[in-house]
Amino acid sequence: MVRHLKQQNPDLEISDRDMLCVEIAGLCHDLGHAPFSHVFQEIINEYRKENGGEEWEHEDASCEMLEHLFKENEDIKVERNEIDFIKDLITGKSEKSQRPKFLYQIINNKSYNIDVDKWDYLARDSHFLGFGKSFDHERMMKMSKVIGDQICYRDKCLDNFYDMFYARYRQHKTACKHKTALLFNKLLDKVFNSANEQLQIFEKVDDMKEFTYFTDSILEEILKNEDNESLKEARKKLKDIIYRSYKYKGTNEDENDQDGKHEKIFCKAVFDFGAGSENPLEKIPFYRKDETESFTYSQEELDERLLLPSKFQMEICHCFEKKVKVQKEGSLKTN
């Protein structure tokens, strides 16, 4: 992406070292993801919120891991200001930088949510989930150029961007926030909170050397320590995931509907196009052929050009109930 933009406009004030830094940031921007990715981030932040801690972001952990890597590999010659630049590219923070602002829209675009990170995971996940990809990020990249220090796109890419945001919604609804995944995430929350006192799970993110060895093998560690009473509750919850101990009851159930006889879990999911209740297409800067100024589409113009949904955000609440099995003597027992 950065090389394409330079090719489009050779007069852009970016050096080969700047482009190398962008490439390193693209390679390293997700180093900070813990096992179970965004799910773990939600779990640890809920824990920190309840215990008065600061919010944890995987991008910040990526920056810490980057510092750790450079410290461990001192033969790699990168200047201090370049390391800081790479970290800012990862977090998308350009406020204190003297470098061109458009560089910060390539990897983590805080302005209008179009970046190579999004193209990468949507293309990859769609492929491995068997969806196929409904948008062409290569075409979008080809149609991009810098106007007024921001990345803009040809107006004829509008439909492609709608397809991209819809692909994101579909991927979340079908996979990331599928009802079974939501249940497992909820139970994983209980597993980690139950095991944290013994295994210090939430402290691992504060030490990059320790964090390096923090993988999803943490679940095997919980399971194999059968003699450890401190992990008994965590093992129980983990086995609820393995043996699918909950059955699905339906959507939009009343969370207050707890009859005391059956253990219920409620899982909420919010779906959108990446901009909450707003239409993300309104924020994208476009340009027309042979024009040197950029523009954004209004809601009215978008209504004329596209078949848009009536709303861009919805919430669903799923209800699950602990399965009950019948013992030989005829009494009921919860798994």
TrEMBL record:
Gene Ontology MF, one: dGTPase activity
Q: Which Pfam families match?
A: HD (PF01966)
* GO BP of this protein: dGTP catabolic process
Q: Which Gene3D superfamilies match?
A: Hypothetical protein af1432
Q: Which domain of life is it from?
A: Eukaryota
* Residues annotated as domain HD: 11-124
Cellular component per GO, a single term? nucleus
**Which PANTHER family does this entry report, sorted A to Z?**
DEOXYNUCLEOSIDE TRIPHOSPHATE TRIPHOSPHOHYDROLASE (PTHR11373), DEOXYNUCLEOSIDE TRIPHOSPHATE TRIPHOSPHOHYDROLASE SAMHD1 (PTHR11373:SF4)
The family annotation for this protein states: Belongs to the SAMHD1 family.
Protein name per UniProt: HD domain-containing protein
